[in-house]
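Dear colleague,

Following up on yesterday's call, I've attached the two folding results inline so they're easy to grep. Please treat them as preliminary; we haven't cross-checked anything against experimental data yet. The first protein's sequence and structure tokens come first.
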Amino acid sequence: MNPTVKKRIDFQVSRQQIKTHTGSTAKNLTREDNSRDLLGKFHKDRSVWIRARQRVLQYLSYQFPCALQLKQWGILNEVKCRLCGKYYKEKKVREPPDSVESVGHIQCYSPVLQLSRIAIHHGIWRELMFSIQKSSTKLNDASEPRWHFPSALSPEAHAEWGQYKILEYMGLHEILPPGAGQNRAKLRKDIEEYHIAYSIDFDETDIDTFNARRPDGLAFDTEKKSCVFLEYTRAMDTNEDWAEKKEQEKNDRYSSHLGFINHLSNREKSGWKASQPNFTTGVRGSLHTNQFLTRLESLGVKKKNTRKAIRNRTVQKTRSMSDIILQFFLIVLNSKTE
């Protein structure tokens, strides 16, 4: 066929009205910030196991054989989680299996897979945090790196600081010699003072919970006296407001801690300010791109191409790790409990 004729035919075909799809898969793929631009690259990535690449397509198109889907296909009569039911029967989980077995439940909520989820959370976060530290090249007035990331040890390890260590770093709490118990007593007194000053209800157990919480990561700008709590969340991204809900949960979780640090800073006139940017990715690779890139820039990642590269790696890592949870689910579901 003549090349010119072929081009004209292709042009006419491209102008034809294609049927508009309105199903769940189409809605997900046409939704903003679903990282669809990276989906093709993910499936061409030979470093990712082929089963993982296939399974991503499977749960993107709502074809993963969970109980909710199997009931819609007429294969099962119940939608309750089979894995939770199996382990509840063997008395290995406390709560009865009332949850619907959906991809979201498997990825984010099943108590049987909790340790696997924690390991995957840490795997994604360590690589992301180390990338931020490595790429944060913004300098202060002394021509030194502006930001310090004490939590980012390597792509395979990170440290979580407690309340004592955070306050000690900023000089807001004196760390006394161990053994006397004065550290704990003084900090509890300061926490009580903060709650009373701002009319926040609390009791002894609330203070223990307050001290036990540790942010996923930390960043300090000593020149501008900025303390930043870094939080990472891997959430199910079925609903359009999935990221906003998780952002609010994380903000609520540490709002009192930030308020307490700012309260002590004002009392001591130290000039320190505490804030919290969250990094939130969806199980299927969704990510609010502009927000993500802006937060990277605020932490000293100056180069635009570097910010994009970190975003791309985070999405690809999240997608490949999401497959691991589904693998564990199928293996454990079909194995014998001991």
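Below is the second protein, in the same order (sequence, then structure):
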Amino acid sequence: MMLQPFEEFRPSYIPRLRKLGRRWLVSQTYHRADQPQYEGQKPRINLLFSDYMELGEARLHLNAVKKDRYAAIVDLEKAEHLAKINAMMSEGSDYHIFFAVVRSAKELENLINREYREKLKAYIEHQTNWRISHQTAVKPTIQLSFGEIFIILKHGNQQIRIKFEEIEKAEERKGEE
């Protein structure tokens, strides 16, 4: 099962974001929240919103996900964009929207350290030339970029940045062998 660390996007976030000057949202398909569908249940489209103060930053993000059919820039100062978001969050909507924020970055790091420790060690062993003793604790840090979770691993003066998805896939491959 995939880790789903992000908060659901709530209507109460909109006025807060506007007040903070974070008027730009970038939407994209969100695969970490894929939920099983039950008979008679209409499938919902999971989206992820990331917020930005500057339009240029939002454009960089949009460019990174431009092949996504749900990639768009939303302007919270435009009435038609607000109306669309409100419709997407309404009861019975085809959409389930998440916000690219975590309740606690420290809790997420602790969870990854606890639940993925062996997978991280296996990744280091198979994908790097680092030689780390068994007593050495691997303590990753978390980074969010363009709606993706990245793991930063440091050893000596070396550092690697890995999509968290790669750690999860390594787990699946290990289970298939």
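For the second protein, one point worth flagging: Helices lie at 13-19, 55-64, 79-89, 105-115, 117-127, 164-176.

Best wishes,
A.L.
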